[in-house]
Amino acid sequence: MSSGNASFNSTDNGVPRHIAIIMDGNGRWAQKRFMPRAVGHRAGVKAVRKIVEHCTQEGVEVLTLFAFSSENWRRPSEEVSLLMELFLVTLRAEIDRLHQNNIRLRFIGDRSRFPEALQEQMAAGEAQTQGNTALTVVIAVNYGGRWDLCQAFRAVNQKIAAGELQAQDIDENLINRHLSTADLPEPDLFIRTGGEQRVSNFLLWQLAYTELYFTDTLWPDFDQKALDGAILSFKSRQRRFGHTGEQVLGKTLTL
Description:
alpha/beta, globular, disordered N terminus, 8 helices
């Protein structure tokens, strides 16, 4: 967790530094229009473009999007194949645009199950944009919060077995350093569209002090105005991190 007072977890104008989003509702958006679910997923990609652009304009530092969970493999094989194809096509189409706008692209999750062409495109996108500084867009694919913790614990255990660490060295900071998000600030604002009110195995460790925002708006309809509404809600909240309201107002927090 960052040190200093609570204002350090937002930009100078109160906008959260790191926004994490579960983009829910693509399929229902299409079904309401009597269209195939594939149409909803393509509409969802357009919504991503709008939100990425708006986050850049607002000064958000990190935007993490839950694109494909480790549980999504349970969906019908036709839909999974479509999502893989759409993911690859979108990456090929968008990487240059992201790079031109000084946006860094990162992926978190277990890539090993994806087609080789997709893995190569992901690596190429990260390499091309790694020096960009306007906004970091993190795409969580084949990701689960429990997976993230397990891989962190395995890495720590291997270091203990090799004599590089001792069991008493294990603390929150050590675990943080072995998570897939080790180089990123913790999310300040979590948004879930589509009406569900749960975190669904997303960033379980990282969301410990995150402000939660749920909306019935389906993801393809979640636009700049909807994001502004979520950010306004964030700005209205007092983030205490275990301190008193008086300490927060006095800006004496030590996190």
